[in-house]
Amino acid sequence: MIFAVDSPRVRAGAGCYGDAGSMLSWARPLLLAAMRDQAATAAGDGGGVRRLRLLRQSAGAGPGLRPRPGVGDWSEVLRETVNVLQSGCVVAVPTDTIYGIACLAQNSEAIQRIYEIKGRKTDKPLAISVGNVEDIYKYCKVTVPDQVLSDLLPGPVTLVFKRSDGLNRDLNPFTDLVGVRIPEHAFMQKLAQLCGEPLALTSANVSSRTSTLTPEEFKDIWPSLGLVVDGGPVGDMMSPECRLGSTVVNLATPGKYSIIRPGCAFTATVDILQKKHGLSL
Predict the structure, then answer these.
(1) Three-class SS of residue 177?
(2) pLDDT by residue (tens digit) across 14-43?
(3) b vs e for 173-201, b when ≥16 Cβ sit within 10 Å of the residue's Cβ?
(4) Bridge partners of 169?
(5) Contacts of 134 (CB under 8 A, 6+ apart)
(6) Helix (H, G, I), strand (E, B) or coil at 22
(7) Which of 225, 229, 237 has the alpha carbon at shortest distance from 32?
């Protein structure tokens, strides 16, 4: 069964974000097949993990996630991914920057699984990913005008605010802050919308290792995952800049911003915050 997913992969320069305009670009549709790997007897099959695999790419561009005529209905891919998440498992997903692993942020046991999979210290925070700008207000105490959110999101930016009481206290219990993302990736946006709650999201790699641009690069953690969504390469494999991840900016203090991680959209983000909206360091 084949599914079409429009993936936002147009970037400035050497395949990465370089200006505010490029943050709004959308690119080629990806054709995915929902596949269940055979039993884990075949060498290198990732332990029999279920996988949504890229078959081929086709020309064309356009925002949103939609089925291509005669190809199939992508809703089944999304439905299966939602079911796996709701069962408490961790899934691997493509984003607009690098590959990530995600679980339901309101599921405390699933959050613990992410830390175990990554071998990550539990005092390092996880970000959340939501489907719409309006959802940010449910889980964060927003300190900036609505237009700031609309100018930065969806996009390769993580915004850090003080958390609200609606967010699971077992997510980052050591801090009152939380980073929130809306990846510029139609599949990720629709997935969060269908889940109806935030996804805890972090990079798909063992801690201290390089971030990943293809599923094969994190094959060592496949056996610990409930599902791998394979959207093909999400950046220029030869460009170190494409492995930087999202730009992380702290907006918890009204009227000010600070950059926690420059990431891949540093210049565009600073231009929007400082030049357009007048925020200061």
Answers:
(1) strand
(2) 234 333 333 322 222 233 333 333 323 233
(3) eeeebbbbbbbbbbbbbbbbeebebbbbb
(4) none
(5) none
(6) helix
(7) 229
**Run of H or E residues at 239:** none
Please tell me whether residue 16 adopts helix, strand or coil conformation.
coil
Kindly state the tokens that stand for 70.
């005669």
CB 40 within 8 A of CB 265: no
> What is the rounded CA–CA span in Å between residue 37 and residue 35?
6
Question: 217, 196 in Cβ contact below 8 A?
Answer: no
Q: Which of 115, 135, 248, 253 is nearest to 189 (CA)?
A: 135
- Separation CA 271–CA 59 (nearest Å): 32
pLDDT, tens digit, 9 for 90 and up, residues 99-117: 999 999 999 999 999 999 9
Question: What is the residue-wise DSSP string for 63-75?
Answer: SS--PPTTT--TH
Q: Say if residues 244 and 158 touch (Cβ distance below 8 Å).
A: no
Name the residue with tokens 């699984």: 113
Alpha helices in the chain (DSSP H): 75-86, 108-118, 133-139, 146-152, 186-195, 266-270
The answer to whether residue 73 scores a pLDDT higher than 70 is no
d(CA 68, CA 71) in angstroms, rounded, equals: 5
pTM of the model: 0.81
Q: What is the Cα–Cα distance from 72 to 75, expressed in whole angstroms?
A: 9
Phi and psi for 230 in degrees, rounded to 5?
A: -100, 105
Cα gap 31→56, rounded to integer Å:
6
Q: At which residue do the structure tokens 């998440």 appear?
A: 85
